[in-house]
Design brief:
Blueprint lengths: L1 H44 L2 H7 L2 E6 L2 E6 H26 L6 H26 L16 H10 L6 H24 L7 H19 L9 H14 L4 H9 L11 H25 L12 H31 L11 H10 L4 H11 L3 H26 L10
Antiparallel strand pairs: 1-2
């Protein structure tokens, strides 16, 4: 009986993670396809029709009670709130019931992720210096889990389960830091009144939970109100998704796994609709266009690419080796030094969040396009280096 109970517990933990990894891998391929379509659209057919489509204004609401944004902003500010809601659900699950719950197990990947944030930001600033160009330091700090896990999926049986979990844990901590950067470093013209209304909406969610409200649909109007208040406050509205996710109960409510149900329902939606639309609307940049004609654009592109390729690899691998030397935490089963170096390289795939931060950092479209080119080049190079490190060898023992 105890063995059967242990097996049931293990299955409850493993099944959601396995499902998450499969969806992330498939979503990574959908994201890649959308990015390729955007690049071909702009570089083969021209960027006129592309920009005309994504800058088309769309009004939602009635009269004075309405919001008007172009299609790109509706995707970046609206649909991406679901993406940040989802990754914040994953963060909360990991903190409450997953690997990040155990300080010993979480310490090493957390330190590795911090190294993978500090070193890329430092390299970026070293290349561009300070001033307005320095505002882009947040672009190369995040790891695109969907893309990176999609690349690992290409390696099939050569990569053990521990490697995927190590990469995913680093990406989760990366996401925590990136969310904080978006909320605090790229917020301007703060409206205290609207921010107070957003906080009031979040308190209403807490009150509803205390009163035992279990139907998810009843929380939707409050969530929309919080999103609008965040939008008007000057804080990026996707942070509304983060805050609402962190208020979602991680333990069963009236016998229902609410957090897991939300993850299962939203993950395909974000992976196969939201993120591909985001890539389609944001990855369209003229390769070698006028954005690289001036020295500022060239420096930004080189800084982003170097920060992703070298900064992530050196930061994560270096922090991991230091932590192991100091006996802080331990590597997952089946993860050796070659796997550490391979994961460190793959973490330089910063596609989604890097592209998301780019327009927040640079209002100048030329600098933004240069940064996007750096993101694309750096992400592709990181993927190639990671595959080159991890590909040699046969079937990994942990696959059995």
């Amino acid at each position: 009986m105890p063995l059967r109970h242990a097996a049931d517990v293990a299955k409850k933990v493993a099944d959601p993670m396995a499902t998450f990894l499969r969806t992330e891998a498939a979503g990574g391929f959908a994201l890649l396809l959308a990015a390729v379509v955007a690049l071909l659209w702009v570089n083969v057919l021209g960027d006129g029709a592309y920009e005309s489509l994504w800058t088309t204004n769309l009004q939602i609401g009635l009269g004075s009670v309405s919001i008007t944004e172009d299609l790109r902003h509706w995707i970046n500010d609206g649909l991406m709130a679901f993406f940040f809601f989802l990754i914040s659900l994953e963060i909360k699950r990991e903190l409450v019931r997953g690997d990040l719950r155990d300080p010993k197990a979480a310490s090493l990947p957390a330190l590795a992720a911090i190294g993978g944030v500090v070193v890329p930001a430092g390299i970026f600033l070293l290349v561009v210096g300070g001033g307005d160009l320095g505002r882009g330091w947040g672009i190369p700090i995040a790891t695109d889990a969907a893309f990176a896990i999609g690349v690992l999926a290409l390696l099939g049986e050569r990569v053990g389960i521990g490697v995927k979990l190590f990469l995913l844990t680093i990406a989760v901590v990366d996401d925590v830091i990136a969310i904080g950067v978006i909320a605090f470093a790229y917020t301007s013209d703060l409206s205290v009144g609207w921010l107070a209304l957003a906080v009031a909406g979040l308190l209403a969610v807490v009150l509803m939970r205390r009163l035992g409200v279990a139907r998810v649909l009843l929380y939707v109007p409050v969530g929309v109100f919080v999103w609008v208040a965040m939008l008007e406050s000057g804080v990026h509205p996707t942070i509304a998704g983060v805050a609402l996710a962190l208020l979602t109960p991680a333990h069963p409510v009236a016998g229902r796994e609410v957090l897991q149900e939300l993850e299962d329902g939203l993950h395909p939606f974000t992976s196969f609709l939201v993120l591909p639309l985001f890539a389609l609307a944001n990855a369209g940049v003229v390769v070698g266009g006028s954005s690289l004609d001036d020295s500022d654009g060239q420096r930004v592109a080189v800084a982003v690419a170097l920060a992703l390729v070298l900064g992530k690899a050196l930061g994560i691998a270096g922090a991991t080796l230091v932590a192991l030397r100091l006996r802080i935490g331990e590597l997952p089963d089946g993860v050796g030094l070659r796997s550490v170096f391979g994961v460190s390289a793959l973490a330089g795939i910063g596609f989604t969040v890097s592209l998301f931060i780019t327009p927040l950092a640079y209002e100048d479209s030329g600098l933004a396009d240069a940064a996007k080119i750096g993101v694309l080049v750096g992400s592709v190079m990181s993927a190639c280096i990671g595959v080159a490190i991890l590909a040699p060898g046969g079937r990994h023992p942990s696959r059995d």
